[in-house]
Amino acid sequence: MTMTAAAPIRTFKLRQGRLRPRHREALHRLWPAYGVAVDGRPIDPAELFGRPVPLVLEIGTGMGEGTAAQAAADPDRGYLAVEVHTPGVANLLVLAADQRLTNLRIAHGDALELIRNRIPPASLAAIHAFFPDPWPKTRHHKRRLFQPAHVALLRSRLVPGGTLHTATDWPGYATAIRDVLAADPELVNPHHGFAPAGTGRPQTRYERRARAAGRPVFELVCHRR
């Protein structure tokens, strides 16, 4: 009997989004300049950006406004954004081109595959994962990004002293993330718990909606030893 490998458990759910003509055109025109494949040889920031820069990985960008703002405010570091939903990728391509962001590149696909396939160990200055899908139902918790095996993978790609930064508006997920990060012996939380909300980042569109609805935001920042 031939054994086949089990399909990986995804930390995202694919949602079909209608592409506007502007976005469809952007994918065709701008992907060669800004796009990065999920599969391939290890990424070299100097090759990717034309200069050696610390590399920041942004996981899950939504429509990209926060990512574009972060890259614009931090020109001395290179930002590699990874998003699974095509409309968000297309919109971020437009933002990158409109703002002439030379320190931003975009990957379309599964962030964990990108990390395993193309990000060498101890090569990232920071990893940002703002408002990841909370998968609130108990039977779906196995799909969450922040669980021990995934956190170990993320942490392994950080340089010593590198930053893992996340935020969520789901209290139960916030507690779970805090506990998973605290259990990793190679991560240090300088705040010994939640950081002040909005620490060192622009607000995302999702966050503005959450705050308008009265939902608190929980921030977590850790560093690799």
List keywords for this structure.
single chain; 225 residues; alpha/beta; Rossmann fold; eight-stranded mixed beta sheet; 20% strand; disordered N terminus
The CATH topology: Rossmann fold
What is the residue-averaged pLDDT?
92
Helix content: 25-40%
* Unreliable sequence segments: 1-6
The side-by-side strand order for the widest beta sheet comes to 1-4-3-2-5-6-8-7
CATH superfamily: Vaccinia Virus protein VP39
**Rg on CA atoms, Å:** 17 Å
Principal-axis shape equals: globular
Query: What's the CATH class, please?
Result: Alpha Beta
Distance between the termini: 46 Å
Describe the largest sheet: 8 strands, mixed
- Strand-residue proportion: 15-25%
Q: Tell me the number of helical segments per DSSP (H or I, 4 or more residues long).
A: 8
- Would you identify the CATH architecture? 3-Layer(aba) Sandwich
Number of strands: 8
Helix/strand order, N-terminal first: HEHEHEHEHEHEHEHE
SSE class: alpha/beta
